Amino acid sequence: MKPSLIVCGESSADRYLSLIVRSVWNIEKLPFIALGGSYLDSVGVELVDNFKSVSIIGASEVLPKLSKVLRLYNKLKKIIRSGKIGAVILADFPDFNLRIAKVAKKAGIPVFYYISPQIWAWRKSRKYKISRLADELVTILPFEKALYEDVIGAGFRVDYFGHPLIDIIKAKNRPNKSKPILGIFPGSRSGEIEKHLNLFMDIAKIIDDKIGNLKIMIAKAPEIDTKNYGVYKDLLYPSEEIFENATAALLKSGTVTLEAAIAGVPGVICYRLSAISYLAGSILVRGVDKVGLPNIITDSYVYPEFIQHINPETVADSLLLYFDKTERKKSTDNLRRIRNLLGQEGVIDRTANKLYEFIKSYDNRL
């Protein structure tokens, strides 16, 4: 049987797909190769390359990495055209992956797209391209499937099984009673850490000056070397340990906001981009007035948001509320709603079953 090619461009998708592949292997040991990261590598998927070199967070980062992106694109195009691939499995990473989907479509190889691009935020017309290039799309947010209703047809199917974090985040927040703890999540890419870590530590210092005895726990991103954290490398902890113990969290916008919500950790969201990327986003994003996924899903500000032009004193004052028991309980009560909106446990197995059926159905046609 020909291997399926997985293509993902960041750590969250790498994590989800590693668990989905492992679940598929509980049914049958189908062959996979991947452009992936440490998670897929750790479960035994053969990596044709690591996505670390092409991880991009904004428009200003495209040009410096363009040659590496083109090299990877050509490498994957050659693999797909070799005739040795049975299916292509794409995860998010739309600007790159939709080009890969076009190559696969021309080669007559079926495309399974996992994690919808954020068409609800910008470039809504991409759904037409996705419906032409992909055979199956599995979304992970509760409102996304409905956005594709007008393009679902005989050659394009859309499913929603829940969000995989429901199965992944087992931590239950039981904050340390002996001392206040602030969890700091500056990002999963080196560029994000560079933009957020010093700012977040400035905010933490203001809080410590006001309440004293503050313990700081910084989340270590799996693909990032400890040297990227500079003088703060001794404050690094696994995310799960922080979720279990933190009184509150200072969160870079992204998947980690959902992780914190599922674990029941209150906090605030901060996000900074380069000036060029921020300007591009301001022009392109329409109809969405929130950036945090928990806030988008609930259409409320369960996590206060501070974007781009950030005053550390203002953020610190907002975070200080969660070190008060009464205010903290109000927030954690709101966070419980989010878990219920993201589906029932077993998301990864249900997704794996769909992927297995997809691969086998096309394999049987050969």
Overview of this protein structure:
The structure is a single chain. The chain is an alpha/beta fold. The protein folds into two domains: 4-162 and 344-363, Rossmann fold (3-Layer(aba) Sandwich); 181-341, Rossmann fold (3-Layer(aba) Sandwich). It contains 14 helices and 13 strands. It has helices spanning 11-27, 38-43, 62-81, 94-106, 126-133, 165-168, 190-211, 239-245, 255-263, 275-284, 293-298, 312-320, 325-341, 347-363; strands at 4-8, 32-36, 46-50, 87-91, 111-114, 136-139, 157-160, 181-185, 215-219, 236-237, 248-252, 267-271, 305-307. The strands form two sheets. The protein has a seven-stranded parallel sheet with strand order 3-2-1-4-5-6-7, sandwiched between helices. Strands 10-9-8-11-12-13 form a six-stranded parallel sheet, with helices on both faces. β2 (32-36), α2 and β3 form a beta-alpha-beta unit. The chain is globular. The model is unreliable at 56-60 and 278-284 (pLDDT under 50).
| CATH topology type of the largest domain | Rossmann fold
Strand count, sense and closure of the main sheet? Answer: 7 strands, parallel
Name the overall outline.
globular
The CATH architecture term of the largest domain is 3-Layer(aba) Sandwich
How many domains make up the 3D coordinates? 2
Report mean pLDDT, rounded to a whole number: 90
* CATH C-level name of the largest domain: Alpha Beta
Structural class determined from secondary elements: alpha/beta
* Order of helical and strand elements: EHEHEHEHEHEEHEHEEHEHEHHEHHH
Q: Radius of gyration, Cα only, in angstroms? A: 21 Å
Total strands: 13
In spatial order, strands of the major sheet run: 3-2-1-4-5-6-7
Oligomerization status of the protein chains: single chain
Q: Helix count, per DSSP?
A: 14
Q: Tell me the helix content.
A: 40-55%
Q: Hey, roughly how much beta strand do the residues contain? A: 15-25%
CATH superfamily of the largest domain: Glycogen Phosphorylase B
Distance between the termini: 10 Å
